[in-house]
Amino acid sequence: MSELIYLDNSATSFPKPDSVYKFMDEFYRKHGVSPGRSGFDAAIETEEIVFETRKLLTRLFNGDDPNRLTFSYNASDSLNMLLQGSIEKGDHVITTMLEHNSVLRPLHHLQQWGIAEVTHIPFDENGYVHPDDIRKAIKGNTKMVIINHSSNVIGTIQPLAEIGKICKDAGIYFLVDASQSAGAVPIDMKAMNIDALAFTGHKCLMGPTGIGGSYVTENFPVKYTRFGGTGVRSAQETHLSEFPYRLECGTLNIVGVAGLSAGVRWVNEQGIEKLHRQEYLLYDKLRNGVKNIDKVITYCGNNTSNQNPVLSINIKGFESGDVGTLLDVDYNIATRTGLQCAPKVHVGIGTDKIHGTVRLSLGPFTIEEHVDATLEAIEDIASIPR
Fold this sequence. Notes:
The strands form three sheets. Strands 2-8-7-6-5-3-4 form a seven-stranded mixed beta sheet, sandwiched between helices. It has eleven helices and 13 strands. It folds into two domains: about 5-15 and about 270-380, Aspartate Aminotransferase, domain 1 (Alpha-Beta Complex), CATH 3.90.1150; about 20-270, Aspartate Aminotransferase, domain 2 (3-Layer(aba) Sandwich), CATH 3.40.640.10. It has helices at about 20-30, 40-60, 75-85, 100-110, 130-135, 160-170, 255-270, 270-290, 320-330, 345-350, 370-380, and strands at about 5, 70, 90-95, 115-120, 140-150, 175, 195-200, 210-215, 295-300, 310-315, 335, 335-340, 355-360. The mean pLDDT is about 95. It is globular and about 70 Å long.
């Protein structure tokens, strides 16, 4: 079988840097114990890695206090805690049509339960949300704006600084889903007036699956919604209110934290801007290439001034799932088809009734030969009589 051409990095980056695999193996063999629960050397050393990773991520997002960087399973896990821990009955929440189900579903249930009112702001023909539309949607009971920094379907990067200023001026909270952007584009929580941010480790931060987290500023009021062991003040009957314990309970995914630590260090060594520039050049070649193939449709691929390397396409006469299967079986190219867990994006681009798109998402280990082979494969499929 030919080499796998992996174009599903928006789901999970693959492969990981060798340094991530190596560090996870070495770390878990030597330090696979609970951090901070005991006074022996291995436990203390494990806690040091955990705290070092908190500091790495806090610096990456320009936060102040590493203890307010908490770990979870993934961004969906953190977003559930942040939303359910902060939204109260009667609150109005502004979000967008670009969101992933990790935001849409918690908000839907809060609305269904009669707790929150939700407004979904549309995006324009190029895939961007206009800050003025958010400003106009603010009401007297608006509590927060939550937005997906970068779409997992069309790759557009939203203007966080402008939206954050609007939120600050209006006295409402600004929560960001950075699942697709953390490690791919610079994030400055202070400059962008972000009150809380959720991230996952297994995408652009180059860590393993099963690890993610959030950073919560002192301004953002989030209650704990989970209770359990912390290894600290065990005689206290109530869960601890201080960070990081407020949003963490039980034993952490230690090997996941270690892998995330190695992934963040690798990203820092390479440089976010350098990685993004390299991926973007290949994305631009892919985008321009498919536009020259007869019967191929692209979505929001015209204005590329603020874009991650994610391209959604369809081929006239084919179901997206069938194109994905052909790419996989005949060409060994891995893509993602369907609605990509973001159904309202597909409503916005008009693909909700035709079973979504074929998503091509590049990563740090995508090379020009992968793009060339993909363009040839798409051209072959598009030439099949239908």
